[in-house]
Design a protein that fits this description.
Elements: E1 2-11, E2 16-18, H1 19-25, H2 30-37, E3 41-43, H3 51-66, E4 75-79, H4 90-97, E5 106-109, H5 115-128, E6 134-142, H6 152-155, E7 160-170, E8 176-184, E9 192-194, E10 200-202, H7 204-226, E11 235-236, H8 243-253, H9 264-267, H10 274-284, E12 293-300, E13 304-311
Parallel strand pairs: 4-5, 4-6, 11-12
Antiparallel strand pairs: 1-7, 2-3, 6-7, 8-13, 9-10, 12-13
Helix pairs in contact: 3-4, 7-8
The structure holds acetyl coenzyme *A.
Amino acid sequence: MGNRLIGYGSYLPERTFTNADFEKIMDTTDEWIVTRTGMKVRHFAREDETVADMAAIAAQRAIEKAGIAADDIDLIIVASISAELDFPSVAVQVQSRLGMTKNQPAFDVRAACTGYVYALHAARAFFTAGMHQRILVIGSEKLTRMIDWTDRSTAVLFGDGAGAMIFEHSTSSYSGIIDTVVFSDGNGFGMLYGTPDHKITMNGPETYKKAVTLMPEAATYIMEHAGIAADSIDWIIPHQANRRIIESGANRLGFPMEKIIITVDQHANTSGASGVLALSHGMDAGIIKHGQLILYPAFGGGLTWGAALVRV
Ligand code: ACO
């Protein structure tokens, strides 16, 4: 049994922070950040704005786009690693903010920058099992809570934001979440993790080496798994961690850059929200059109990696 996309939405906090703003507070330059990462600006949430607040706004926009009532949704899955509270989940906080009344199940997944692919993987499994009718899948991150402002090599890399998609059960397997693959290797833990005091710690060069091989591998694997040829893919939305990683991956796969959606310059790395934010941006701008096929490879702390194929 399949599914189809019926709505999407996103939210970016109003406040932006440019490379020039970083130049004022730490030993860095716009030139270094642009050449090494492709990042120019990122959005920073307000002090009082939570992961759940941002998730609920993106979800509300997706609900409006879908033309349904919040109670028509019967499962919420949220991908996030930056929630302010250990519990309850972001997903139940979203459920309450949306005014849902039917005790619909709601839970979070934590798989760092691969979180949204893991969330799509779970949603696909629930549809395949015939267990749910409409699933709201959200990625929401407030990574500014986790920035180590004394470490210039990670501080400049992250931003905040949220995105959401709603999928509905369908008898066709042609649309919606067509396929997903996910992997993890806990032995890579030390490369990239959040410390007990909630600070992002990363061995950049080691993580970089893994990202440039594992994302293209996941992309190749899913195309074979789904029996889809590379030239059937309309757009690739790679996890937006670094423009150089994206270019290297495109090169390895033989995909022209014209087929790649890039938002890392405008949003920086928003971890679990990155792919869905880029997809929403592409659809709002009319670049991604209804019916097109998206390949979304991701990579992150864990290590975790994977890919999703979604027809929008
Ligand atoms: N401004 C100026 N100089 C800097 C900065 C900065 N912000 N940060 C580091 N440098 C310096 C370093 O000190 C070093 O100087 P040195 O040569 O004198 O020692 C030099 O720049 C090179 O540092 P590297 O760390 O080797 O730089 P690199 O080219 O590897 O770029 C980066 C660093 C951007 C972090 C890159 O390694 C990267 O993108 N890594 C992968 C990130 C990623 O994919 N993360 C996965 C997802 S995140 C998640 O799951 C939450």
